[in-house]
């Protein structure tokens, strides 16, 4: 399985997954220019995409859907730009060619937000962003994966010292907001096992977080739990930088 996280953050989110003869796209935010250039950089063709998986309807996840609307689109939320939309629901499992997709119910302030578990015959990817917390009912599905792309949106103290209005801070901190570094790390360290190879901390706030803060928090939680996993590549995703798991 090859995974290219094309962009991640409040200005756009998109992830390309390829395995054998199957190509899936999770979300299509950002700009047309950036996404099309990113496809070229990773050697992919838009029209080879077998399915577009949409997590929710916020613009940073669907702003370029009109350029993918001729493809099969799978979502739990309402979408206006999809010509061939397939409705899915949490806990549903779907097979698209060589990959299976498990849809996960998340908690965000956009109706019907979902995450994904994508599996080949040998590998398992968990993709969870845009959730104020990790619901207990999805934890059995997301444990023991090979690869995690997992939200680590903000540092609480840094968020509170921004100039954002209090209502926005409260929204981000709420159960319908975004996972902070500490909660993300606590969840991840309870989910990983010996087969886990990659963790990508994703959807980082450019104002209320830094790559170093997110990574240091994860390392500190490992130390507090006296965990010493070997062979795991832990990275933090920038907003506009392709990050590849291969």
Describe the protein's architecture and organization:
The structure is a single chain. This protein has 246 residues and is of the alpha/beta class. Helices cover 23% and strands 28% of the residues. It has 7 helices and 14 strands. The strands form 2 sheets. It has a 7-stranded mixed sheet, covered by helices on one side. Helix 6 packs across helix 7 (211-224). The longest helix is centred in the last third of the chain and has 14 residues, at 211-224. The N and C termini lie close together (6 Å). The model has no long low-confidence stretch (mean pLDDT 97). Residues 11-171 form the Metallo-beta-lactamase domain. It comes from Holdemanella porci. Keywords: Hydrolase.
Q: Summarize this, please?
A:
The chain has 246 residues and is of the alpha/beta class.
Name the features:
seven-stranded mixed beta sheet, alpha/beta, 246 residues, Metallo-beta-lactamase, Chain A, single chain, 23% helix, globular, hydrolase activity
Task: Identify the CATH class.
Answer: Alpha Beta
Distance between the termini: 6 Å
- Tell me the CATH topology: Metallo-beta-lactamase, Chain A
How much beta, percentage-wise?
25-35%
Structural domain tally: 1
Strand elements, count: 14
**Helicity range:** 10-25%
Largest sheet: 7 strands, mixed
Compressed to H and E, one letter per element, the order equals EEEHEHEEEEEEHEHHHEHEE
Mean pLDDT: 97
User: What would you call the structural class?
Assistant: alpha/beta
Based on CA inertia axes, which overall geometry fits? globular
Q: Write the CATH architecture name.
A: 4-Layer Sandwich
CA radius of gyration is 17 Å
Strand order of the largest sheet: 6-5-4-3-2-1-14
Number of helices: 7
Low-confidence stretches: none
User: What is the CATH superfamily label?
Assistant: Ribonuclease Z/Hydroxyacylglutathione hydrolase-like
InterPro entries: Metallo-B-lactamas, RibonucZ/Hydroxyglut_hydro, WalJ/YycJ-like
Pfam family, one: Lactamase_B_2
Protein name: MBL fold metallo-hydrolase
Keywords: Hydrolase
